[in-house]
């Protein structure tokens, strides 16, 4: 069994991106920037946004943080997004989710210029992915594929099973695996017998949000298991996979923490570079 080290892979990717940003900024003589909008004081969101600020600093690009108290009128946030859409020094815009209750997430996200949609949540970016012409792909799915590539795990012709079908994680992961010619099955909360599918998986990706729901009897000997889940318990974080018992059966497996998690921010930086280059005619 080989552990897939997301922390190390993400650090290497981020170091490479810092060099690519420096080259691009020098070539175009234009600074690069990512705008992050945080509404309210959700503790996890505050950690995520400060990690994004740190990643921008390391990449040598500006991070423009906009913090609003819960209760700020929705129109005020939309007006800010419209201003940022027209700001040439803002290459990417993201709204930290979830928004506090009472905000219409879709109405707000819809206002982000699709060329600056570095989270890849817009119908336009999802459409491009589904058409096989990806530009800005949702960061966690992109991170899953990057990890599989980093470890040279073949996908073509493999049975890939994705458990979870959210628009931001499960579905785009399935699309990416399909784009690499895997045969993809998507399981969800209404799947009659999930184990029947997971046991056939050469590549098993789990993105559900239920601690240790994938047990050893659900996994084929030699499978590659990617655990996207992040669940908080008394002792810290754990994934959707019962790591201790599943790992001995796998050829490769991601730990939680230290697997997919660190890749998400690395891919946010990659998307910001893609957006920057596209906005400069590349
Ligand atoms: P989500 O929107 O809640 O979607 C969960 C999915 O799991 C849904 O498709 C749901 O099915 C399915 N599901 C729920 N219970 C199930 C069960 N018992 N059996 C099979 N499928 C079941 O969550 P998400 O945003 O996709 O996130 C999934 C997990 O990934 C969470 O733990 C989240 O914290 C984590 N995550 C990690 C990162 C990272 O950076 N590593 C980033 C994003 C999310 P239905 O569609 O039928 O309801």
Note down, in words, how this protein is organized.
With 282 residues, the chain is α/β, with parallel strands linked by helices. It folds into two domains: 29-113, 3-Layer(aba) Sandwich (Rossmann fold), CATH 3.40.50; 139-260, Rossmann fold, CATH 3.40.50.720. The protein contains ten helices and eleven strands. A six-stranded parallel β-sheet has the order 1-11-8-7-5-6. A three-stranded parallel β-sheet has the order 3-2-4, with helices on both faces. Strand 9 (231-233) and strand 10 form a beta hairpin. Helix 1 (6-28) packs parallel to helix 10 (261-279), helix 2 (43-59) crosses helix 10 (261-279) and helix 6 (139-150) packs across helix 10. The longest helix is centred in the first third of the chain and has 23 residues, at 6-28. The chain starts with a strand and ends with a helix. NADP nicotinamide-adenine-dinucleotide phosphate (NAP) binds next to helix 10. NADP nicotinamide-adenine-dinucleotide phosphate (NAP) is lined by residues 140, 163-166, 168-170, 187-190, 194, 207-210, 228-231, 260-261, 264.
Summarize the structure.
The protein has 282 residues and is α/β, with parallel strands linked by helices. It has helices at residues 6-28, 43-59, 74-85, 105-109, 123-130, 139-150, 170-179, 194-198, 243-246, 261-279, and strands spanning 2-3, 33-39, 62-68, 92-95, 159-163, 183-187, 203-206, 224-227, 231-233, 236-238, 252-253. The chain is built from ten helices and eleven strands.
């Amino acid at each position: 069994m080989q552990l897939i080290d997301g922390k190390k892979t993400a650090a290497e990717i981020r170091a490479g991106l810092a060099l690519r940003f420096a080259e691009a900024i020098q070539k175009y003589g234009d600074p690069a920037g990512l705008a992050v909008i945080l509404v309210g004081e959700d503790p996890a969101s505050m950690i995520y946004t400060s990690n994004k600020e740190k990643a921008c600093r390391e990449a040598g690009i500006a991070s423009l943080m906009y913090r609003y108290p819960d209760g700020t009128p929705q129109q005020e946030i939309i007006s800010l997004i419209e201003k940022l859409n027209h700001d040439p020094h803002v290459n990417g815009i993201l709204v930290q989710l979830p928004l506090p209750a009472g905000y219409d997430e879709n109405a707000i996200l819809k206002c982000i210029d699709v060329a600056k949609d570095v989270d890849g949540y817009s119908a336009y970016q999802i459409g491009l992915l589904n058409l096989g012409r990806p530009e800005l792909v949702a960061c966690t799915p992109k991170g899953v594929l990057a990890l599989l590539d980093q470890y040279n795990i073949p996908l073509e012709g493999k049975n890939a099973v994705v458990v979870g079908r959210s628009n931001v994680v499960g579905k785009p992961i399935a699309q990416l695996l399909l784009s690499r010619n895997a045969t993809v099955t998507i399981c969800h909360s209404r799947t009659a017998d999930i184990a029947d599918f997971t046991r056939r998986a050469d590549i098993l990706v789990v993105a559900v949000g239920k601690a240790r729901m994938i047990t050893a009897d659900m996994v084929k000997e030699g499978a590659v298991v990617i655990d996207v889940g992040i669940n908080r318990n008394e002792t810290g974080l754990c994934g959707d996979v019962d790591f201790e018992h599943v790992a001995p059966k796998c050829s490769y497996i991601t730990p939680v923490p230290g697997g997919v998690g660190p890749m998400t921010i690395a891919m946010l930086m990659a998307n910001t570079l893609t957006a920057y280059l596209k906005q400069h005619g590349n």
